[in-house]
Amino acid sequence: xxxxxxxxxxxxxxxxxxxxxxxxxxxxxxxxxxxxxxxxxxxxxxxxxxxxxxxxxxxxxxxxxxxxxxxxxxxxxxxxxxxxxxxxxxxxxxxxxxxxxxxxxxxxxxxxxxxxxxxxxxxxxxxxxxxxxxxxxxxxxxxxxxxxxxxxxxxxxxxxxxxxxxxxxxxxxxxxxxxxxxxxxxxxxxxxxxxxxxxxxxxxxxxxxxxxxxxxxxxxxxxxxxxxxxxxxxxxxxxxxxxxxxxxxxxxxxxxxxxxxxxxxxxxxxxxxxxxxxxxxxxxxxxxxxxxxxxxxxxxxxxxxxxxxxxxxxxxxxxxxxxxxxxxxxxxxxxxxxxxxxxxxxxxxxxxxxxxxxxxxxxxxxxxxxxxxxxxxxxxxxxxxxxxxxxxxxxxxxxxxxxxxxxxxxxxxxxxxxxxxxxxxxxxxxxxxxxxxxxxxxxxxxxxxxxxxxxxxxxxxxxxxxxxxxxxxxxxxxxxxxxxxxx
Length: 487
Ligand SMILES: [Cu+2]
Hints:
Elements: E1 2-5, E2 21-24, E3 30-31, E4 40-42, E5 48-62, E6 65-72, E7 81-84, E8 88-95, E9 104-106, E10 127-128, E11 131-133, E12 139-144, H1 151-156, E13 161-166, E14 183-193, E15 199-200, E16 212-215, E17 221-227, E18 229-236, E19 243-247, E20 253-258, E21 261-269, E22 272-274, E23 279-285, E24 291-297, E25 316-328, E26 350-357, E27 360-361, E28 373-376, E29 380-387, E30 393-397, E31 403-407, E32 422-425, E33 430-436, E34 447-450, H2 454-458, E35 462-468
Parallel strand pairs: 3-17, 5-8, 7-13, 14-18, 17-25, 26-29, 28-35
Antiparallel strand pairs: 1-2, 4-5, 5-6, 8-10, 8-11, 9-12, 12-13, 14-15, 14-16, 18-23, 19-22, 19-24, 20-21, 20-23, 24-25, 26-27, 29-33, 30-32, 30-34, 31-33, 34-35
Bound molecules: copper (II) ion (CU).
């Protein structure tokens, strides 16, 4: 293999930052696999049930090297769950790992006891069966473990999959939608391997910045494109690395969706920055017979402290798009994709302030037995979140899709104008986020709000909030195990 060494850069303040490298593949000849759609059964009462088994396996990331990995229903990653708005879904989560795990439905609006966070552990040999009604716009969501203090390692070992939501009532806005043909989910992750091929978990300030970058688990892969336009549902499934995706020829593409669904209108872009946990759906136009690569360019991480690289120097190709000699026609993408329900500052009932620094939120580390915030159902709230560090963080809020009101008082870029559940926090900046809490209350089971740089989450950068009926009493400590696993 060849090693691409990034050119040394000089940070804005004139201090050189360290050089890091990502391993370039020898070629892009391996087809990028499309995650299989998970089978499901629909019961007489309409409940659609999926089954997922977390298990051990091995993966050949590099020729001739078997790496022990974890996956759902396989050696690495997991099948794509897919359901429609209005459906009651259930998932039988079986744990065949040697230690407890959990499965969190990232981006899903659902009762706290079904959320799959640290209060819903699944012990080895046990089955957990959450169920909820899908009631939110079409979106590219995902699932991954969220065990207390162990999330980074479980995701890094390979436990992650897509959960796609459809909305049959939404109008056709010309987006490619043939799964695995012109509508392809792509999870990008980075890892480091030790000399013996095992996963290296040692990382720095933001966790692991891996030299081995994969798309759907493949290093150096390609997708064959057979249509004029292809929709890529990009997921940053890394534990610490932030990407700035674009194409090797700097072509313009359309970003059509963010974490929680469609943007109001397509955004013409040449880059999309995704921090861990974030998603973007993009539509790329191809010409017959051409080849172009999806590249992660040096990401603009904001005003990061001098001397820290944090992956800001890394530039590398993630996968290759190979267009067939004849491409089937694709519809035009509409100018208006959706009308977002307004979330107005004037309608906000509550403003909360969060300072993110080190491994703390508002000066406190995560405590499973402490409720940090109590929210009344039906409330529209503004969460004013400041990254008080000179290093990157981000913020993921469970249960809701929020909107970015402003950043340091200024309007957010158009790409941040849609529903979000995970927001990158540039150093020393203040983000005002607006969200509404609806439908579900549980005074005893909290939702999480945390940094999705998973090392930070595990080390304590997480807080707990409950959603309650107005005026309800809140227990001071949560139950040890809220939704007990079935035996
Ligand atoms: Cu963080």
